[in-house]
Prior knowledge:
Blueprint: H1 12-15, H2 47-54, H3 57-69, E1 96-104, E2 109-117, H4 120-139, E3 154-158, E4 165-174, E5 179-184, E6 190-194, E7 198-200, E8 212-217, E9 220-222, H5 228-238, E10 244-250, E11 256-260, H6 269-273, E12 277-279
Parallel strand pairs: 8-11
Antiparallel strand pairs: 1-2, 1-10, 2-8, 3-4, 3-7, 4-5, 5-6, 9-12, 10-11
Amino acid sequence: xxxxxxxxxxxxxxxxxxxxxxxxxxxxxxxxxxxxxxxxxxxxxxxxxxxxxxxxxxxxxxxxxxxxxxxxxxxxxxxxxxxxxxxxxxxxxxxxxxxxxxxxxxxxxxxxxxxxxxxxxxxxxxxxxxxxxxxxxxxxxxxxxxxxxxxxxxxxxxxxxxxxxxxxxxxxxxxxxxxxxxxxxxxxxxxxxxxxxxxxxxxxxxxxxxxxxxxxxxxxxxxxxxxxxxxxxxxxxxxxxxxxxxxxxxxxxxxxxxxxxxxxxxxxxxxxxxxxxxxx
Length: 280
């Protein structure tokens, strides 16, 4: 059997009943030096200044000019109108129509609408448009406002003179005035409207083509001594008793026509007699 030895250290003071004296050593004070924060905020160096500090004066001048003249413009994304109207198509066989001038647009040009003709399809459109107008008047005010108007967009507009809703198309957008310029497609006249007086157009309302169209008087011109305003006023007065029989004489580059009264006389003969209009 092997033996193990253990060594014990005996505290004599405890054996004698004496208390052990505990000597407390003074704690060393830790000196913590508070870090000093920088009081200067981060200031990014302008690009021109950074370049100036690192390149020659000649290059600095060129770079400075480049920064001063470079302009950042917002990207303009062209938009296509959601809905558009189609124009009337005149068959070559259609030569004579009964029409009403709606607005004189130039010295010898005007917008007209058809009262009657021998083309069944066009007469069908006239009937559809009459029925359609009732729906437009009763439903337009309930249609959504147009938030982002686009040139060429089909819409409906509330005409200022009679507060009636008509089919229209946007000719121009006037953001500074919060308004648009519209063209009333079934009558040929234009006006500026605030956005509150236009509405979105139902797709079914665009199925009928535009019922107004532009014509120019055939083989007549005006003298240079007559200004545009005088010509428009006198031509408007001479065509104040519609309807007129319209004869299509040429189709290119636009419809060139003659207008006759019910008696078979040229409707604007009085203007030819006074020299405002002259045959060419």
